[in-house]
């Protein structure tokens, strides 16, 4: 009887989980496997390879890794992620959350509303708004600064998309850090102040150790989102001369504009591997933190 009940329970659990597994298989697993297969072929949008693609093995991967354009896009993407996500969004988001934690009333609601508005608007709409802001001839920024004709998107394309993405994505970090700071006991901060700790020492010794998991989670999510972000294409199209051609734009250019779908699929799989490295590094850091907390709770020496 017990065995039958257990089997019935497993069957019901499987029935509840099965729809989700089917959706994951259809929209995630199958496209990933298809991308891996295309990366091993010379499949193109037109020509003989479109009708009868041939398996070329790892040729697409060796071609991509040996392409100076791919390496340039990779370094541009690293700079884009580091500047706009790690430094910009995470730094500015925490600064806003820290300043607003003790604020109440209209000022806090106004700042949160403006920051959230930039996040909830569709990415394409925000991209065209920033294009209008930075336009050389009729841009709002040039009108405000009195610098007509200054080509922000042509002279400083990478900096432009970094600032754009920082403004667009700061809201998520601000909200996550605001929730994390709510869990920091005020008595701990008060004790640190009475001990003579300045703001930097309070953050280093009290705040960050308590919200480390939130920091790691935030850095992982915004880094992955930024690494795979295609929105800068609206501003610069990857130009001029490839100076803002991050990896998602590079894949678009070679796969759809150039018609080399096999090569584009291979590069997409390389991007997936890089994302997995990010995720594994995060899990390793988080696991190490949990081990330290477990050791401390048991009264043993730090791991």
Automatic annotation (TrEMBL):
Q: Which GO terms describe its biological process?
A: transmembrane transport
Task: Give compartment(s).
Answer: Cell membrane
Q: Name one GO cellular component term.
A: plasma membrane
Residue span, ABC transmembrane type-1 domain: 75-282
Q: Where does the signal peptide begin and end?
A: none
Q: Transport among the record's keywords?
A: yes
> Where does this chain mainly localize?
membrane
**Keyword annotations for this protein?**
Cell membrane, Membrane, Sugar transport, Transmembrane, Transmembrane helix, Transport
Membrane-protein topology: Multi-pass membrane protein
* TM segment ranges: 16-37, 74-98, 110-133, 145-167, 210-227, 261-283
Q: Which InterPro entries match?
A: MetI-like (IPR000515), MetI-like_sf (IPR035906)
Q: Which Pfam families match?
A: BPD_transp_1
Q: What family does this belong to?
A: Belongs to the binding-protein-dependent transport system permease family.
UniProt name for this protein: Multiple sugar transport system permease protein
């Amino acid at each position: 009887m017990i065995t039958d009940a257990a089997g019935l329970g497993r069957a019901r659990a499987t029935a509840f989980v099965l729809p989700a597994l089917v959706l994951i298989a259809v929209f995630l697993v199958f496209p990933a496997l298809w991308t891996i297969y295309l990366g091993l072929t010379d499949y193109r949008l037109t020509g003989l390879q479109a009708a009868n693609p041939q398996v070329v093995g790892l040729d697409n991967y060796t071609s991509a890794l040996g392409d100076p354009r791919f390496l340039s896009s990779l370094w541009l993407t690293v700079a884009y992620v580091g500047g706009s996500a790690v430094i910009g969004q995470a730094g500015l988001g925490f600064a806003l959350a820290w300043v607003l934690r003790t604020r109440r009333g209209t000022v806090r609601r106004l700042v949160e509303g403006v920051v959230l508005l930039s996040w909830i608007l569709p990415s394409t709409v925000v991209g065209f708004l920033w294009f209008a802001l930075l336009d050389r001839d009729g841009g709002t920024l040039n009108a405000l600064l009195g610098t007509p004709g200054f080509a922000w998107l042509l002279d400083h394309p990478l900096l432009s998309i970094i600032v754009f993405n920082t403004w667009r994505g700061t809201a998520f970090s601000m909200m996550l850090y605001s929730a994390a700071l709510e869990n920091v006991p005020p008595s701990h901060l008060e004790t640190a102040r009475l001990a003579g700790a300045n703001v930097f020492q309070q953050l280093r010794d009290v705040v960050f150790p308590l919200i480390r998991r939130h920091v790691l989670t935030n850095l992982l999510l915004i880094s992955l989102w930024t690494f795979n972000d295609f929105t800068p294409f609206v501003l610069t199209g990857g130009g001029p001369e490839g100076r803002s051609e991050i990896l998602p734009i590079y894949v678009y250019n070679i796969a759809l504009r150039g018609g080399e779908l096999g090569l584009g699929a291979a590069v997409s799989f390389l991007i997936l591997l890089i994302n997995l490295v990010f995720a594994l590094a995060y899990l390793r850091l988080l696991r190490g933190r949990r081990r330290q907390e477990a050791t401390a709770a048991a009264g043993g020496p730090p791991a």
